[in-house]
Task: inverse folding
């Protein structure tokens, strides 16, 4: 059997694939964060909570209304997006003129509140959500059994990332968005409703987090804590990619997922810090991140 | 003459004051305060959490709310699974809040830290949530007690059942801290004693979301049994994902070494069915346990697992010991705790060993399939009863310096 550093090649291939799957979640979540930061200059600490809300929305839609996974995949992001829009209108929009620290503190408090309420309602061990009928089972890839659902996660997140990138970089709406953040006064003078654009942006970011949450629901236990564990890692991803860089966030998400996967083979105890070590090194060498523009 | 009367009156009054505290016989601060210190926001919040606090309050109410004519109060705090935070809270409780004893203490690293500092402070701890045998082993304390379960009992119970069923080669998925090591070591030793082999182990950080990497390593080891030496949400995610990667369908068995009713409830019978696990309490065992569980459920909305029932037992035993000792002085109460047998809904015939280990019967369970389960929380079939003497290490073998 071929081995690399004492690890069988087959095992290594399996780990790379697993890394890619986890990277899909990192990419999807850091994409939403990057969009919100890039366009609104808000460091959205509530992103993990919105991811958790997405998973819970899927669970409650199933239990309350009997709506299955595929409905949830569409409805949960819409619901959480609406929730995001309300939050932005009522609170965040008042903070744009202040130091970015206020936005960070507000969203952090919001995350704690939402998670606290859900922990109170549902406890910390959470609830199960089963894999949709269509995506059950595994495929034998020769080197590992790939659960079909995990393959679906990679595809769905890649498509979502591409769509978002396309909307922001290649459409008229995206052009308005980017212009509105560059020079809101001028864009407003052209008769474009800038506050509405900003609300839409925040709602889009929240919806992306919720989409990732629905994708995650069948894999992880749907629990109030699921976002807390993830959000710090995702922040590291965004920092490594370069704050506000959309492609950077996506690429770094996949890359760090793979790096983490490999660490789990060679030095499992370090697997929860490897991303932060990479972050520290990147910040030392390129303070603006891998894809960030030097200020 | 008048001054004579006055002075005798004063002397009488003084006497009265001197004798008054003696009536309340050495209860410090005229209150008995019990602290429930555990994880209320993290991965073990359902394992013990706020329901342990409820169990403690139930015990105090059932005891009558007072002991030796002074009120009993229960206080609680969240230690976030961090030994330093737990130590700070315990120290504050002892120094400024007149807390007499701290209980629950889920998480082995926390349990060991708080027991060590309580030993110096001469305060009694009764651990009902942590697993490591170290608590009553080399790091035992004259004031430290361990109720409910430990890693030895889990190894004998769940480990034993799987070895018996032909699971000879093992691979461990171990939580990377004191508890995980202790559980892995105890189980590995037990497996080897029975003639089995241990092929390897992988250590994962506490509160890991994704186990697929670790599971793939376990899968490629070819071991017959994958021992999950972790707890709470970690074990839930590992079980769920093992099914996803076809590990259980491939013939490898999972040993959820520490898994309780609370986690089975969260995971659902679909994913949990067929698992073997060991607890020292099951609500649907006798009329007495059913009645207790029903009252507990009315207060909390959930059925008790062994940690909740065990905390009830620990609080009750502490109050009985205070009553028997006639004081809340730690030395006297610790002596009574070791001396008195434990008879309650949790431990019908329990006893406390010289090293502080409470010995009670353990039950090996099999989780029912969804079709076998006929009512909410009807999750277990009791496969075997493991007598306390076999489930727990005798004091002489524990390595505790107090036993000589």
Result:
């Amino acid at each position: 059997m071929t081995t690399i550093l004492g690890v069988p090649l087959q095992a290594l291939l399996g780990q790379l694939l697993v890394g890619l799957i986890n990277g899909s979640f990192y990419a999807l979540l850091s994409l939403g964060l990057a969009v919100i930061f890039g366009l609104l200059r808000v460091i959205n600490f509530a992103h993990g909570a919105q991811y958790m809300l997405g998973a819970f929305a899927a669970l409650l839609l199933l239990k309350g209304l009997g709506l299955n996974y595929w409905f949830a995949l569409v409805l949960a992001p819409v619901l959480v997006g609406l929730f995001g829009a309300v939050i932005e209108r009522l609170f965040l929009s008042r903070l744009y003129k202040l130091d970015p620290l206020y936005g960070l503190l507000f969203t952090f408090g919001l995350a704690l509140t939402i998670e606290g309420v859900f922990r109170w309602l549902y406890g910390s061990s959470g609830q199960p959500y089963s894999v949709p009928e269509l995506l059950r089972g595994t495929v034998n890839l020769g080197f590992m059994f790939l659960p079909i659902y995990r393959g679906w996660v990679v595809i769905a997140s890649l498509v979502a990332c591409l769509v978002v990138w396309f909307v922001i970089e290649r459409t008229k709406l995206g052009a308005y968005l980017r212009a509105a953040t560059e020079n809101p006064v001028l864009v407003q003078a052209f008769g474009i409703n800038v506050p509405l654009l900003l609300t839409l942006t925040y709602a889009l970011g929240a919806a992306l987090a919720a989409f990732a949450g629905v994708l995650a629901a069948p894999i992880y236990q749907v629990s109030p804590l699921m976002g807390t564990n993830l959000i710090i890692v995702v922040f590291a991803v965004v920092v490594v990619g370069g704050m506000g860089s959309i492609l950077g966030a996506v690429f770094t998400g996949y890359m760090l997922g793979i790096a983490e996967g490999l660490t789990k083979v060679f030095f499992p105890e370090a697997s929860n810090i490897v991303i932060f070590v990479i972050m520290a090194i990147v910040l030392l060498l390129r303070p603006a991140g891998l894809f960030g523009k030097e200020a | 003459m008048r001054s004579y009367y006055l002075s005798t009156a004063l002397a009488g009054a003084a006497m009265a004051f001197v004798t008054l505290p003696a009536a309340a016989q050495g209860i410090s601060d005229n209150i008995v305060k019990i602290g429930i210190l555990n994880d209320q926001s993290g991965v073990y919040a359902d394992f013990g959490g706020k329901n342990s606090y409820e169990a403690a309050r139930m015990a105090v109410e059932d005891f009558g709310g007072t002991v030796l004519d002074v009120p009993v109060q229960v206080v609680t705090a969240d230690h976030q699974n961090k030994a330093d935070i737990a130590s700070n809270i315990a120290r504050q409780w002892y120094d400024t809040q007149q807390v007499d004893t701290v209980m629950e203490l889920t998480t082995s690293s926390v349990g060991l830290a708080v027991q060590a500092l309580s030993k110096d402070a001469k305060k009694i701890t009764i651990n009902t949530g942590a697993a490591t045998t170290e608590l009553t082993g080399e790091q035992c304390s004259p004031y430290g007690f361990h109720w409910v379960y430990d890693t030895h009992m889990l190894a004998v119970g769940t480990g034993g059942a799987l070895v018996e069923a032909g699971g000879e080669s093992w691979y461990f998925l171990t939580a990377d801290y004191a508890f995980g090591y202790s559980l892995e070591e105890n189980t590995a030793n037990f497996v080897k004693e029975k003639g089995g082999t241990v092929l390897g182990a992988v250590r994962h950080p506490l509160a890991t979301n994704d186990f697929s990497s670790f599971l793939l390593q376990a899968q490629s080891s070819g071991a017959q049994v994958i021992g999950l030496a972790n707890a709470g949400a970690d074990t839930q995610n590992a079980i769920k994902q093992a099914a996803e990667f076809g590990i259980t369908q491939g013939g490898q068995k999972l040993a959820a070494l520490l898994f309780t009713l609370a986690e089975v409830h969260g995971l659902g019978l679909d994913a949990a069915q067929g698992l073997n696990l060991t607890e020292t309490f099951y609500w649907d065992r006798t009329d007495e346990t059913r009645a207790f569980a029903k009252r507990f459920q009315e207060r909390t909305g959930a059925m008790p697992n062994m940690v909740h029932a065990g905390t009830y037992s620990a609080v009750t035993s502490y109050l009985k010991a205070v009553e028997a000792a006639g004081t809340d002085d730690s030395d006297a109460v610790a002596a009574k705790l070791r001396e008195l047998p434990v008879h309650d809904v949790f431990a019908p015939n329990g006893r406390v060993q010289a090293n502080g280990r409470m010995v009670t019967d353990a039950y090996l369970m099999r989780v029912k399939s969804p079709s076998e389960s006929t009512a909410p929380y009807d999750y277990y079939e009791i496969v075997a009863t493991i007598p306390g003497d076999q489930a727990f290490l005798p004091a002489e073998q524990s390595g505790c310096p107090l036993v000589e």
